[in-house]
Amino acid sequence: MTAFSDKNFKASDYSTFRPQYQDTWFRDILEYHSRIAENKTAIEDKSSKVLDIGCGPGEATIPLIKYFNDITSIDLSAVMINQLKENMRRYQDENPDLKFNGFVSRSEDVSEFIDDNSIDLVTAAECVHWFDIEAWFQEMSRVLKDNGTLAYWCYLDPIFLGNSKANDIYHEMAYGDEYLGRYWQKEARGKIRNLLRESHGILQDKFSDKFKDFEIDYYNPPDFPKQIKFHLNKKCKLIDFINYAKTWSSGHNWIKDHSDISEDSDEYVFNIFLKKFKDELNWEIDTDIELSWNSSYCLARRIPRS
Fold first, then answer.
1. How far apart are CA 53 and CA 124, in angstroms?
2. How many Cβ atoms sit within 10 Å of the Cβ of residue 7?
3. Which end of the chain has fewer surrounding CB within 10 Å, N or C?
4. Cis check: omega of the bond before 225, within 30 degrees of 0
5. pLDDT of residue 306
6. Where is the Methyltransferase type domain (predicted)?
7. Structure pTM?
8. Which tens digits make up the pLDDT trace of 143-174?
9. How many CA atoms lie within 13 A of 220 on its CB side?
């Protein structure tokens, strides 16, 4: 996860070019959480406390403002936390009742900031593959209130809908060692490419004494238009996709490792990316494309303490 902690990482680009989570997804989380009467009451009277783990610049934190007034966000990267605090200022100005805190911390130990049995909802978006998963599940079981909700999800490997050649180019560039392939953190990337199946299994098998009511699903865009509660689709320009690729940890690591290559150079990996699309598909930077991401989610409920 060192790429996102690098002081030169452009957290603002992460906010701009990453796909945005749909409000329907957050409503689905609330629907699950509200199946318990006291949870529903706490949401209605705005007394619920939310902990957003691996928050980045606020991709999940900010949408949660619509439903909650007490949010704490945690990220290992000071760059991300600083960007989130900047992003949150206007919402705090607009809503004087909004209580927000952002802390730099490991996700597996938030005891410095979060008390036992104090959080109604934990969210973790596009970050669980970086964690020591058993330590994280244990820590989340500590902080969650009885019947509190754990919600985490991931997405990766966008599919260019209706264009298999574009998908071939993507996989060559993203995973070929000649390009970005050797710049991923292999263990974390392997976990997310398996759509967190290992993590889901550990939660169900090793933490069945602490969590229940598991809701887990997967989406593979070739199954389109079949969709699960959490899915990401986006219509954009080719240049938007290229800018999104620059927010990958592998993209940042490549740029850092090739600081002598300018963005104008033909050797700049993202220009090579663009050239392949142009030469093989006759695409330009303003060509319209449609993307859909592989994705997975898990919802689970904290078993009440005896």
1. 5
2. 8
3. C
4. yes
5. 86
6. 51-151
7. 0.93
8. 999 999 999 999 999 999 999 999 999 999 99
9. 5
